[in-house]
Amino acid sequence: MTKYLNEELVKNAFDNLRAKGDGKLNHERSTAIFVALSFNAISHKTNEQVLDLSPDSDLGKYHRDLFKAQYEELVAIESGKQQKKYKQIWEFGVVKESSKSPSVKLSSNFLTTRLKKASTMMTALEYPGRPKGVPLLLLGEEGSGVSYKAKHTKNWFQNIPTVLRHAPTKTPLIDLALLVFRDVELTDAKTPKDNLQTMIATRFTQDFSEWWIERLEKELIFRTDRKCLEKRSYRKQKTITFDVEVIPDSERLRKKSRKELVDIILRLQKEIRNFKRGIGDE
Question: Which residue has the higher pLDDT, 143 or 33?
Fold first, then answer.
């Protein structure tokens, strides 16, 4: 029988990770965590600590394809486009629909903007830039020896709790694990806690997975639903329904380029002129 993690556990974890305050900053924090997790999964898969992410080399293109696929798996709520929109995790605790898929957003933002900027700098570019002093990746020449390459910072995973410190949860690493493996089919009849530990060790590098599993054990004492994690409770259906939040028009405008905004203004001015001519003709 096909089994997945208990839906209530996953939904509670998703809500537990939702931070209050600046929506843009929360979006940046969430994206940074997913980017770092994707990078580590690829590092584990390829057994490479430094990844070539050049858009011009065959190896770089291969790594970029792996990166986009891994990121899509972590962020997408439903596979493929639904009614011209992609449903995806916008930030921890928030699901939104976008005309761009998660992989396209990763390509245009991190794999292009961030890496291109790093390739022109004399020193390594730390990612993410916020919060300061807790980077998860180093990008660029100084960081890994060659432009368009990236690697983890030393003991990078110890910065994850700081990046997640605004979330109202005492168990951020348990909640993160439940969210990351929400759609992964369970292959045995162990408890959710045992399954999480197995899946972490299977997908991520040894140093990171050992640290994460140790954190899970320490956080268990703070869980009010500890019994649910330690008993055999699953769901049969892969899909979990999350409420979708509408992106405000103001947020859509902030994400547009200067040229796009100018085009919108010119189009509106034209419509106003046409409207005034219509009134004058009546």
Answer: 33
